[in-house]
Amino acid sequence: MKKKLDHIGIAVRNIEDSIEFHTNELGGTLIDRYRSEAEGVESEIAIIDIDGDRTELLMPTNNTTSPIARFIKQKGKGVHHVAYHVGDLDQALKELETKGIRTLEWSLRTNKHGRRLIYLNPADTEGTIIEYCDYPELKS
């Protein structure tokens, strides 16, 4: 299945400072900002567009349960995940299964922008957090 880079997720400690850097210093545009308290997310998210490429800034809102908070405690701030757009998430999941690549099933969800997503198990991706996503409303 064909894949295309969708976005990079960056774990940050201070979203205001990160937004300022990405917009003022890198020339990006803030296209959305929202808070998600969904289990397994618990973050404030800012989406930055830089010449058609997207970056998600992720700041934990709960330092006890947020996976972003755990990531920062373990590895520090920085790149959290790489997301790939797949044409059909259901088909991509079947392909992963045939290859023996596991997912973090609890992470399967649809975000506020209609993007369906799931994270692959880092134990099967050489430690990298990889997101697969699709946009069902864009399918013909």
What does this structure look like?
The protein is 21% helix and 43% strand. By secondary structure, it is an alpha+beta fold. It has a single domain, classed as 2,3-Dihydroxybiphenyl 1,2-Dioxygenase, domain 1, CATH 3.10.180.10. An eight-stranded mixed sheet has the order 2-3-4-1-5-8-7-6. The longest helix has 11 residues, at 15-25. The radius of gyration is 15 Å and the shape is globular. It starts with a strand and ends in a 6-residue tail after the last strand. Residues 4-135 form the VOC domain. Belongs to the methylmalonyl-CoA epimerase family.
Q: What layout of secondary structure does this protein have?
A:
Layout: E1 3-11, H1 15-25, E2 29-36, E3 43-50, E4 53-60, H2 67-75, E5 78-86, H3 89-98, E6 103-110, E7 116-120, E8 130-134
Parallel strand pairs: 1-4, 5-8
Antiparallel strand pairs: 1-5, 2-3, 3-4, 6-7, 7-8
CATH level-two architecture? Roll
Q: What is the count of DSSP helices, taking H or I runs of 4+ residues?
A: 3
Q: What is the CATH H-level superfamily? A: 2,3-Dihydroxybiphenyl 1,2-Dioxygenase, domain 1
Strand content: 35-45%
* Overall average residue pLDDT: 94
Rg over CA atoms, rounded to whole Å, is 15 Å
Helix- and strand-based class?
Answer: alpha+beta
Molecular shape = globular
> Portion of residues in helices?
10-25%
**CATH domain fold name:** 2,3-Dihydroxybiphenyl 1,2-Dioxygenase, domain 1
Weakly predicted, low-confidence segments: none
Strand order of the largest sheet: 2-3-4-1-5-8-7-6
Task: Please indicate the count of domains.
Answer: 1
Class in CATH? Alpha Beta
Cα end-to-end separation: 17 Å
How many strand elements?
Answer: 8
SSE order in H/E notation? EHEEEHEHEEE
User: What does the largest sheet look like?
Assistant: 8 strands, mixed
Pfam family, one: Glyoxalase_4
Keywords: Metal-binding
InterPro entries: Glyas_Bleomycin-R_OHBP_Dase, MeMalonyl-CoA_epimerase, MMCE/EMCE_epimerase, VOC_core
Protein name: Glyoxalase domain protein
